[in-house]
Every structure is written in C-alpha cells, then in structure tokens.
Amino acid sequence: MTRSGLLLIILMLLSYILFPQDLGQLKAKETQITQSLDSVQVNTWNDRAFEFYQEAKYDSTIVFAKKAIQLSDSIHYKSGLGLAYKYMGMAHYQKAEYAEAISNWEPALNIYRDLKDDSMVSNLLNNVGAAYQTLGDDPTALKLIFESLEIAERLNDKQQMASCYVNMGSVYMNDKNTYPQAINALEQSIKISEEINNKGLVGYSELNIGDILLQQDKYIDAALHLEKAIDNWKEINYFQVSYAEAKMAAAQSKLGNYLEAQKYIEEAITTAKENEDKLTLSEAYNTFGTILYEQGKFNASIEQHSLALDLAKEMNTYKEIRNSYRGLADANAGLGNYSSAYQFQQLFTATQDTLKDEEYNNTMGILRYRFNVGEQEKEMERLIMENQLKQSEIEKEATARKLLMAILILLVFIIGGFIFQYRYVKRSHKRLDREKKRSERILLNILPKETAEELKNNGFIKAKRFENVTVLFTDFKAFSVVAENISPEDLVNSVDYFFKKFDEIIERNNLEKIKTIGDAYMCAGGLPSKNHTHAEDALNAAREILQFVKVTAEDPPDGIFPFEVRIGLNTGPVIAGVVGTKKFQYDIWGNTVNIAARMESNSEVGRINVSQHTYEHLKDKGIFTYRGEVEVKNQKKLKMYYIDQSTI
Questions:
Q1: What angle is formed at CA 144 by the lines to CA 139 and CA 146, rounded to 5 degrees?
Q2: Exposure pattern of 91-103 as b/e (b: 16+ CB <10 Å)?
Q3: Which of 176, 248, 344, 530 would give a disulfide with 328, using CB separation of 3.0 to 4.6 Å?
Q4: 481-491 pLDDT, tens per residue?
Q5: Paired sense of beta strands 464-476 and 512-517, if any
Q6: Pick from 271, 197, 256: which is nearest to 232 by CA?
Q7: Run of H or E residues at 576
Q8: 229-267 residue pLDDT tens
C-alpha cells in the first residue's frame, strides 16, 4: 500500500469519527440559537403585555401574557414565565377577577422563590395578600403582607415597604377595634412614600385614613385627607381617583353639602365605568345609595344599592355584598317595606358572620400580636446597637435591663391579648344582641307581637277564629282624581303623613293594624288578644281620626294634600292568620270584613257609619242616627247608623 493510499484511508477514518461530533455540536448550537430567539420573543410579548396594562387595556394584556406563558413553558424559560404570570394576575386583578389573579400570582411566586429573587417574592406576596383582603379573607391577607414586609425591610426596598404598610392598613381598617393599628401603618406608609416621592402610595394612605375618619363620624377631618388623596392622584393622572371621589361624596353628604356630594359621586361613577373598574363602581353605587337614603329618597337608594349588589356578587367581594345588603335593608325600612327590610337584614347578618367566626378572630388576634411584638423587637434591636458603643460594664447592665424589659413587655402583651380577646367577645355578643333586636323590630312591624312569637317558637303560624272583633275601614274621598293632579312625590308624602298618624291613633286605642290597600286603611280590635272593649276602642279611634283629618284640612303642612275621609265599622267573627312565605303578612277574612268595607263605602265624608252589629255594642256609648239599610251578599240587608257629629 502506498503512502498516499494510507493517508487517504486515515483521512477517511478521521472524517468518519469527527463528522458525527461536529454534527452534534451544530445541532446543539442550533437549539441554543432557537431558544435564545424564543426567549427574546417571550420578552417582547411580556413588554407588550405591560404596555397594554399601563394603557388599562387588560384583555390585551391577558392575550400577550398568555402567549408568553405558553412559549416560556415550552422552552423552560423560568424568568419569562414568572413575569408573564405576574402580568396576567395584574390584569385579572384590575378586572376585579380576584380568584383568577391569585391563581396566576401563586405560580409566579413559586417560580421566583426557585430563582431566589427576593424582591419579586416580596412584591408578589404583597399582591396576593391584597387580593385575599379584597375577597374578605383578612387573616390570610395579613399573613402574606407580614411576610412581604419582612423581606422588603431586609432588602431596604422602601417602595415595597410603603406598599406593604398601605395593604396592612387596609386589612386593619376592616375592624373598628384595630383602627389605631390601621392609622399607624398608613402613617408609616406616608412617611416612606413622601421620602421616595411616590404620590400614588401617598394617595392610597390618605384615602384610607380619610375612610377611617369617615367611619368615626369625623367628617371634616375625613374630607381633608380625602382631598389630599384626590390631589395626589390627579397630579399623576391615576385612574383610581374615582374611588377617592366616591369617599369624598360620602363625606360631603354627611356634612350636608348635597350638591358637592352629587358632583363627586357622578364623577366617580363616570370614571369607574370608563376604566372598567368594577370594584370602585360597586363602592360608588353603594355610596350613592347611602347619600340618597340620607335625603329620604328611598326608591332611588334601593336602585343604587341593587346595582352595587349585582357587581359585588359578580366579583364575589364580601365587603361590598355586605354593604349592599345593609343599604337595601335600611332603604326598604324607610319605605315601610318591612318584610323586604327584614329579609335583607337577615342576609346582612349572615354575611357579616360568614368569615368572622371564632377561628377568624383568633387568627387575627395572633397576627396582630405577632406584628406588635415584631415592632417591639425592632425597637429593642436599635437600642441594643446604640448601647454597644458604650463601655462594656454599662453595656452589660443596659442589655440586662432591656432583656428584663422585653420579658415584662411580652408578659404585658400576653395578658393584654387575653383581656382584648375577652372584651372583643363581649362586644361581639352585644353586637349580635343589637342585630337580633333590630331584626325583631322589623318583624314586629309586619306581625303582631303574639303572632311574631308564635312564628319564632314554632316556625309557622296557625290560623285562628275570633268570635267577636270590630273591623274599622277608612278611605279618602276622590283619591284617584287627586292622584292625577298632584306630583307623585306629594301624593306619597301626603298618604304617608295621614297613615303615620293613623298608626299612632290605633295603637293608642288598642287596635291592630291589618293593612293598607292604596288609600284604604284597615285595622281591627279584639285580636290577636281577645278583649271586650274592641267596639268602643274602634269608635274612639274613628273619632280621633276624624278630628285629626279636620285639623289638617284647616291648616295643612307644606306639600301635604288635605284629604277628606269616610269611615265604616262592623263587628262580628273573623278568621286571622298569615299568608305566603315571601312578603308574608297578617290578615283577616270573613263576611265581617266585607260588611265593614260596605259600611265605609256607604258612609259620607267626615262621618262614621256603623252596622247593626256594632250599634248593638255601642248604643249606650253615644248618640246614633238610623239611616236605612244596605244590601250585602245573598240579597241580605243590614241596618246602618251614623254616630252623631256632635259627639265627635
């Protein structure tokens, strides 16, 4: 074999050995280049997602973040995946989709824990805490915020520290017992935020302090803080300025500045709608409902609270659902719709107690104690560092004193915790008693006391027959004609004015109100507790009603139409009971009721017309004038009598 042949074989063998190795390296480089290009694409999509977020285009944010998530996951690009999840959560949070926000932030949090990126871990812990607080889970929120604050303090990340204190204050302000801790946290946030010139966080803190003062009925101070929040947010064109405007509307309403309140609340609602800020919009509707309630505009109040409730249920936000139920209970009670008011009050009480059970209170107490002890420990560490500069003997004595002080403070906190818990439980029982009494008052506006007790004890009400009761009917003259010629507001105010006085008169005369039907008013004596004075009681009440109507006609108040009234009485047996399961009411039935109605319809303005049955009970109690017969059912005729006007 020649040298050239040997060289050729060697080269061929070398090429056979080396070529597969070069091919593998080329494929690895190709994969590396592809992954590099893909990671650039992920970063581009994340940048686009953040740009859309800043423009409040949250659906577009979600689209690009989702693309980044899918590609990052396929190439195992952790930092890109974590950032995409974070942006996805931010968009869902602004869309008031808090459960979705948490479901995206939690995987982002796990990724940044793996990457040991403490700054992002602190940021996400705070974000998740804020979402849980909005959903009403304060213990979980506070735990996450504490963890975020500890990391931020270790990193000396002042912006994150200020944000944690804002969220901490938001949690504490949900309970009147922790308002001092809330204000302390918010003031710390303001101090740090002003140091780093972060007007957004200053605005949040001023807003929350204003809200606390509003709850404490310090309306002037509240308005001053809310004005600072609005000014800071308008300066940076921050979209949530609508939330501060809603709170300012509430403060102005409490101060009696209703025009200012109207201006602020309309601005808040308009801005919240433009920004698709459902949480703020729900809060604004509830605030508007309260303002209208304070002005006596109960129907309009119900409309606003209902809008708030629909949004709150859509978002599943506990606080706004609770506030909507409370507002609807108050507004319905203002209209006299006591059945609806009672139902909403029951829903409010149930919602109020949904999360704030014994476990909730214990958890919150432990977390508050942990924070207070943590603050105390920080202060002690600062003092110990200062004392290290002193002489060794003085340092030992000072350290011993501080250690003793820490033990004493710890004991004080433990004892104070027990005392606080005891007092809190005691206050909770008082609050429950108040709510129970409130519910019972509403129930007693629907049912007689004995009937209400029967409903509470047995869960149902049995119909009863009363052999001898006196039924009283009143009706206004030409009501339909009057209704067509005066404003609806004046009509309702006038009827309300007369019927409220009728309520006082019949209660004073031992009668039971049955119902009102339009302009007709119906009551009865001798039930639900039997008595022998029912006919005389009904006659006395009828006389008082006529006297009141007469005095009103002589000098009617502003906006009150001076109606004229007819009255009819009849005595006999009735069946009494409660009908329905929704908007139930106490009612009576029988021919006695029908005859009483005929007595009223056959009466004249300013007269009391009584049946033969009632006359037999009252003929010794006054002067009566026989006025003929009236035909009732089955072609039967009954005699009628007028009570002499000189005795009225």
A1: 95
A2: bbbbbbbbebbbe
A3: 344
A4: 888 888 989 99
A5: unpaired
A6: 197
A7: strand 565-579
A8: 989 988 988 777 888 888 888 888 888 888 888 898 888
